[in-house]
Structure formats: structure tokens, C-alpha cells
Amino acid sequence: MKLGLIGPATSGALLAEAIEFLLGEAEVESVVYLGLDDAIEEVARAWAADACGGVWTEPDFIEKVATLAPGASVAQLDELLSIDAARTQLGRIRRVVKPPARAIELLGDRFVTLVWDKAVLAEEDIANSFIIAYGKSDQLFLKRFGPRVFFSPGPLDKNRLAILEDDDEEFVISIFSASGVPLSQESLGGFGATRVTVSP
Fold this sequence. Notes:
Purple Acid Phosphatase, chain A, domain 2; 6-stranded mixed sheet; 30% strand; elongated
């Protein structure tokens, strides 16, 4: 499992470059934008217009298939396959939920909690998380607190993004520039049994 994390962005070009790297060369399973603004939607719409010919939603794609498929040429079938592949990539892009909600991902056998502001988390949320990843930070932050890790890639404008992965029996956080230049890597330790704690 490889999970890409992008902090809040004011540059649409830098955000598009980061997403292209994560979904392309880095081959992450999903990308989570840790900002609350609409920048990720604007970039996704632009990508849809370019790579999908504006055919982004499921109904639009089904309509295009129904229109073209019966007498489609090889070139038109290739176009449909290309659009479908681009739509699949778009489906791997998500945005962090608005507070006080939080999202959970599984990394190997551990829980990753994704939030905008870590201050909304209750004791039980923290106790059950291996990694708490959040967007509200003005800089890259990585700190262990006992068996848990608090992490933020910081604003994308500082040209940093992250990949969380379970690799060769250990958990790793890798930091890259938006264009994919590797900057640092931190091992978070090996696999173990999932531990879930319920606060009394």
C-alpha cells in the first residue's frame, strides 16, 4: 500500500505536478489532499477536460460509450479506453474531510487517521492510530509520541509532499519535491499485530 499526501496548495501548477508524479511515477494507490480549499477540484477538472475530453462523470462516460461503441473504429475504441484509464486515475484522488470529521486508511495492518486539524481528535482516535496525518501546519512535521507518529507534509508551496507505504516488512515515510525528487526517508518500524485501544 502506498498513500500519497499533499498539503494545502496555492499554486495549481505545482499541485498538478505533484498529482502527476504521485499517480504516475510513484504509482500510489491513492492521493489525499490535506487542504480544505477547492484547489484539488480545480486541478481535477482541468485534468478531466484534458485527459478525459470533459467526460468525467459516470453518466457522461456511459453516454459516450453508448454513442460510440456500436460502430466504433479502432481509434475511437482506443479513445474510450484512454478516457476510462484517466477516469480511474481521477478516482484515486481524494480530499480530507471537513472538521470535525476524520478519515481512516489502512497501511499494512495499522490505522492512518487523516484530518485537517489534529486538534479535533479525541483520545480514542489518537489511541487507535499508528499515524495521524494532518494538513493544518505551516511546515513539514514528523514526530513520534510513543507508538504513534504525528505527521504533516506542510504546505505544498514549500515544495514538499509525502508517500506513506508498507515496504519490505516496515512502514516508511518518504518526502519528495512536487516534481518527484527524493528528499528524505524515515522508517517507522516493522509490522506487528494491529492494536486497537478503546478508551473507558
